Amino acid sequence: MHAFGQILKTEAKLHLRDIPTLLLTVALPTLILVVLGLIPALREPSPEFGEQSFVTYFTPSLLVVTLAMVGVNALPTVLATYRERGILRRLATTPASPLALLVAQLVLALAGILASAVLLAVVARLAFGVPLPQHPLGFAAALVLGTAALLALGLLVAAVAPTAKSAQALAVPVFMVVMFFGGVYLPRFLLPDFLAEVGAYTPPGVQALLDAWTGTAPHPLHLVIMAVIAVAAGAGAARLFRWQ
Amino acid sequence: MPVIEVSNLHKRYGETVAVDDVSFDVAAGEIFGVLGPNGAGKTTTVECVAGLRVPDGGEVSVLGLDPRRDAARLRQLVGVQLQESQLPDRLRVAEALDLYASFYREPADPARLIDELGLGAKRNTPYDKLSGGQKQRLSIALALVGNPKIAILDELTTGLDPQARRDTWSLIERVRDSGVTIVLVTHFMEEAERLCDRLAVIDSGRVVALDSPAGLVSAVAPEQRIRFRPSTPLDDRLLTELPQVTAVTRSGAQVVVTGTGDVLHAVTSVLARNQIIAADLRLEQATLDDAFVELTGHRLTD
């Protein structure tokens, strides 16, 4: 336990020192929100978004940015780098378990996502009057399951990529799909219904996040799909993961 | 008392035989060298000893334990420095040692180790700002921070400049003097000759010789050659009569005496008795390099 605590502490310090990644993962959605929120028209309620403002409508999609950045991009890159540079292998010669390092990385990824979600919700509320998630329990469930699905996909990428470069190459298409269907590139009301519907089932499940934010309980099927993806990708990663 | 016993170790990667048949014992407190060209099977051999790989055949025992079955206990007792293993760029020297110290039940004092390895001024320097020699010393420190009984060091000085290499050698001697048994994998002849009490010369997955560096040399190339310029004309018979001398030839004004054993002492005694001064006296001995060529039929490439 002492060893795990020390690993977690050390990895936390390393994450905090990596300012560019920290900004991209934790602060970027809030920065985009602030930029969009400075445009008056986007703060006006509109019938297109069910009498909400565009900013309100778009905030859950911004959360997808963090989830994708941390889960599909940062996590596999760190793990593949650690393997490529022999850090995991070296750890395997000590009494510490490389698994402890993996768990520490997951804990920190979750912490980053939580910090980003809280920052986004608070700034959206205080600066632009976006209501806080109206269905807190449903929102928590959608966030946790969506995050789990993305982190599991990230682990799967880390498991099959031999180097940091190939991890990034593999992560890019996953990242694009997540961002696209999450309504980050194009707001989802511009997507054809069919594509918007697909987005409900691609991690992290933006429809469930959106529903919970606006006060509807997320559709159970959406949540179940995220849980299934998390378990399947996680199991695949566990089978394929190589320490060296 | 051997602390490491390896008998008939065999390891394949698919069709490729990495280690064919390797046996050796390492005694407590010695610096044991595993010497051989790249691809000879040195690293695979020590990785089996360290429990990082499962042998396909043969027995390995470390401190009386099985590296696979008793892996958890052995990791507390054996420090390993791997070839080409790095640390995260932003990890600082003291943090790396504190981290690794936390893995062990009875770690060494990280602060003291940092000073002993001459990294005191660098304790807050991130890994990617260290020089090659400093990275190597940090890597050695990490192998030692658990207070191991055995340290396995793979290609310790590869990529270091000559000064850093010499500094590292004296460091290893100090570590041995503190009671740690050291297994040193190397393909540098000079390093093996300078540091190792005993050596296993490995070529194509087999041990071709197992002895002290001096023993290896005298076993394969026992002849020594003495060259000198006598101050007064010298009768060859004075020398050829000596039992240690095998041949006397001349090369201009130089006398070249070939012989074995304490031939140098025998020759200089005769010369002294006859009041002949040997000017420009030189003794030529085979080196470990010569011994290696003799043993394996090819030269170690640096």
Automatic annotation (TrEMBL), chain A:
The keyword Zinc-finger does not apply. Belongs to the ABC-2 integral membrane protein family. Residues 20-244 form the ABC transmembrane type-2 domain. This is Transport permease protein. It is a multi-pass membrane protein. It comes from Micromonospora zingiberis. The keyword Transmembrane applies. One of its GO terms (molecular function) is ABC-type transporter activity.
Automatic annotation (TrEMBL), chain B:
Residues 4-229 form the ABC transporter domain. GO terms for cellular component: plasma membrane. It is a peripheral membrane protein. It holds the Pfam family ABC_tran. Keywords: Antibiotic resistance, ATP-binding, Cell membrane, Membrane, Nucleotide-binding, Translocase, Transport. It comes from the Bacteria. It is found in: Cell membrane. This is ABC transporter ATP-binding protein. The lineage of its organism: Bacteria, Bacillati, Actinomycetota, Actinomycetes, Micromonosporales.
